[in-house]
Amino acid sequence: MKAVDLFCGCGGLSLGFLKAGIEIVGAFDNWSSALDVYSYNFNHKVYNLDLSNIEQAVIAIKALSPDMIIGGPPCQDFSSAGKRDENNGRGDLTVDFAKIIEKIRPTWFVMENVERILVTQKLKDAISIYKSAGYGLTYTVLDASLCGVPQKRKRFVMIGKINGIDNQYINELEISKSKKPMTVADYFGSSLGIEYYYRHPRSYARRGIFSIYEPSPTIRGVNRPMPNGYTIHANDPVTSLNGIRPLTTIERSMIQTFPSDFIFLGSTSVQEQLIGNAVPVNLARFIAAAILRVEKINDTRDLSISHRKKHPQIVFEGN
Q1: What pTM was computed for the model?
Q2: Does domain 2-178+277-306 have CATH number 2.60.120.260?
Q3: Among this protein's residues, is 75 annotated catalytic?
Q4: pLDDT by residue (tens digit) across 118-151?
């Protein structure tokens, strides 16, 4: 199975699919900082291309003959951290992604985005395109902490299969989830050398101190130091701020389940943005592995049916 990654960023989706056993034959983006990091860490070709140019994108992608197209169109216009204006420009890329799928018609596609896309008109428009092109659709919201990631991060995932049926992957996605959320300690053990850390809250009405014995909150694209005047919040699990620090850039990338030897380039602020925007590697692997398991079951069933047709059972009736 060969896939291309659109809006590839620094490669979380690609790396997860590779780890699951799907070959990535190319990746596309037009964010130079992301392309630099992606190119440094992967051996396959990465292309600098504006994917809103549908005609040009289709020509370039078709040349790679993918069985599957995966991608996470930029979600800032849908995100709760943004202005929540789906008509601000970037929301159009979700529809552009669907138009590319419609024209290329790979056997499968996978689209990842923020949970809030569920209430947008752009998603409805994209679904209409997919259905007109003949895709069976499975879509749901996955909590990354139940999918091998030590982070509370909810993401919308849509899987499409040409001439498939709706919801054919949903049971596998559901039964594969962990029974309990993965904590930072579950993932790192004691290797971080801390029990508590600071994560800058969106407002000081919220806590800023977290324990390694719970999932990390969502890794965002900024990583601010703890201000000198920070006051312990009622929900902070500490009574003293001694020894409390924010997570480092590399620690944050590892909470996104990038391996420790994955290299991020650029300024610290650029690296933090790349990490915050990335798809957690293990979440991507979870999705890809579920697809492969369902397809393996389908292949086995098809072989069994084919065998029965070639070798019909002979029944001997007794006297």
Answers
A1: 0.90
A2: no
A3: yes
A4: 999 999 999 999 999 999 999 999 999 999 999 9
